[in-house]
Amino acid sequence: MQLDQLHQDFFQAVRDMADKHVAPVANGIDKTNEFPHQLIDVFADMGLVQLAVPEEYGGPGGDLLSGCLAREAVAQAGSMALAQLAGQNSIVVNSMMTGASKELLAEIMPILAEGRTITCIAITEPDAGSDPSLMTTRAVRDGSRWIINGAKQFITWGSMAKYALVFARTNDRPGSKGISAFLVDTDQPGWQVSKHNDKMGQHGVPNNEIFLYNVTVEDTFRVGEEGNGFGAAMHGLHLNRPTVAAIAVGAAQCALDYAIDYAKQREAGGQRIVEFQGLRWMMAEDYTHIAAARDLVYDCALAYDGGAPRDEVTKLSSMAKLFAADTVNRVTANAVQILGGHGYMAEHPVERYMRDAKLLGIYEGTSQIQRNIIAKRILR
Fold this sequence. Notes:
- It is a single chain.
- The protein is of the alpha+beta class.
- Helices cover 50% and strands 16% of the residues.
- The strands form three sheets. It has a four-stranded mixed beta sheet. It has a four-stranded antiparallel beta sheet with strand order 2-3-7-6, with no helix packed on it. Strands 9-10 form a two-stranded antiparallel ribbon.
- Helix 1 packs parallel to helix 4 and helix 10 packs antiparallel against helix 11 (350-357).
- The longest helix is centred in the middle third of the chain and has 36 residues, at 230-265.
- The protein is globular.
- The protein starts with a helix and ends with a helix.
């Protein structure tokens, strides 16, 4: 699919920035596991952190295709982890735009529009991931406010976030019914970061376990109707999945490009290994899978930006994420294989790409969940 000139220029501008600011630090943050805080200003100055904030609140008002392109460009520069900083608060913004009151939007959106505020979404719990019916975090009404107690697990950006969209059970209705969403200011004492998880890959971006002890939230900070807040989360997730798929596309392209460059230089048996038919076929198939994954991502984004029905966007977003996640895991593993023993060594980034890629089939809904979502919509 051919992008229009505006989106082509946007992609190239982000890629140029990422080549300058992201590529040089990507390997370093993998080793130190420390987030380069200076990049928040760099990304914010381009309008990337706050990309989804509507223009009426002072934000860029970027469309979904731009969100996908931004993340693809950063990942293509060599960092799946830092690609998450592009559109970092999009999932919270999109969820709030669905269910938050005008008063709450007027208070919070101008802050997010500046691009210096990190947010997170807190759904997953120690015993509740893909199945929201197992959620045990509770919010109890106390006059005009709510008191929240519970624990959240695997919360990306949890230790850096100023605001968290927290999901808690407010009544005993079955399944996802009875779950409400609240925008929580994490500066209050009841928000406690209990653990910094040591991840397999995508180092540098924090992932935490969170305890909430008598966290207080005014009812005006509730997002969506009481007992029906899970829909806001799903809307935010469905719009975030194609951007996650875009990270996979960019990362797969990065890995393939590196493998091709290596194969053109490496010699074995008196010839460059790029001439070996087995490797040529491997690279040709990888290139084809990347192109197909990219088209799925763009098709989903264009469908949403063009006003397609929500159910259609949901199906397309799951298709894009499923196929792109499978593709990046395939391509990064092949890149390691093409480099052989060198690919297994940390001196080449493909071993990092392979570790980083695994997460893309797990977070924002596992690949198995995506298959269920797709099947539900094509079989009913």
